[in-house]
Amino acid sequence: MNIGELFLHATSASARDAAYAFADAGIPVFPCLPDGKRPLTPAGFHDATTELTIVRSWWATWPRANLGMPTGAASGFDVIDVDTGDMGTGFTALESARKAGLLDGEAARVRTPSGGLHIYYPTDPDGDQRCWQSAFAHIDFRGEGGYIIVPPSTVRGIAYRLSVLRAGAQHPVDATALRELIDPRPPQTPNPRDAIHHADPDRLARWVLHLQEGERNHGLFWASCRLVEAGYSPTAIETTLGSAAASVGLSAREIASTIRSASRQGAPQTATTSPTWNEPRASTRRESDAPWLA
């Protein structure tokens, strides 16, 4: 019995009977809070097992428990978790992934109580794919180190239910490609020491184009000073850097004022001066240290 058939069976079974069926099929399970997502066993999804004696004892203790399944190598399945709610929906990003050809090879789809979606894929036999979260795209990936709640479990009285059962060829999803498509990393701000020692106008303009809020005025001033040192007039500097500065949000007035200040400052006082830049932080919307649950 494959995962889709197990879900089909679960639509007419209790969570306890579904747990027995999963364990009998070689897919480890564990009990979660009735009508909730929190594991009831001490080590959570790490306690998941296919040992029927243990599974029976759990559901004898918690007969109304929801059914949890670890993702990754333990179960043999990775899951794309599409969220939807007041903060936004992941279905827009999902459609982009579909158009990019990144969703082929799925085994099944399960509709979640919130109206979201779980898309199941076989794990990659050549390497573990770790869990990640994109709050920006409202899509999570549940792989190694995560777990999900499976049918016929309920949350707020609404059941997880099979939506689509695929009969064709199945293969792992490329979680790295999916993440880069729906939630690409922000560009790194170049180090001025690496990029600008010879007052190359094009490189200076490209550098200004990557300035972030809080560093734009200072960065434009510093780049303008480099061009002053190279003999550029204020008009020539504005022609060289003005478009890039406007693209990062500086007004025409700010640009003109900053360039005039750099021209008045002059080369002798700025030749050894360079701004101190902090290394850009990793985007917090892509990281989470919390356990992965659905």
Automatic annotation (TrEMBL):
<dbReference type="InterPro" id="IPR015330">
    <property type="entry name" value="DNA_primase/pol_bifunc_N"/>
</dbReference>
<feature type="compositionally biased region" description="Polar residues">
    <location>
        <begin position="259"/>
        <end position="277"/>
    </location>
</feature>
<protein>
    <submittedName>
        <fullName>DNA primase</fullName>
    </submittedName>
</protein>
<dbReference type="Pfam" id="PF08708">
    <property type="entry name" value="PriCT_1"/>
</dbReference>
<dbReference type="InterPro" id="IPR014820">
    <property type="entry name" value="PriCT_1"/>
</dbReference>
<feature type="region of interest" description="Disordered">
    <location>
        <begin position="259"/>
        <end position="294"/>
    </location>
</feature>
<feature type="compositionally biased region" description="Basic and acidic residues">
    <location>
        <begin position="282"/>
        <end position="294"/>
    </location>
</feature>
<dbReference type="Pfam" id="PF09250">
    <property type="entry name" value="Prim-Pol"/>
</dbReference>
<feature type="domain" description="DNA primase/polymerase bifunctional N-terminal">
    <location>
        <begin position="19"/>
        <end position="182"/>
    </location>
</feature>
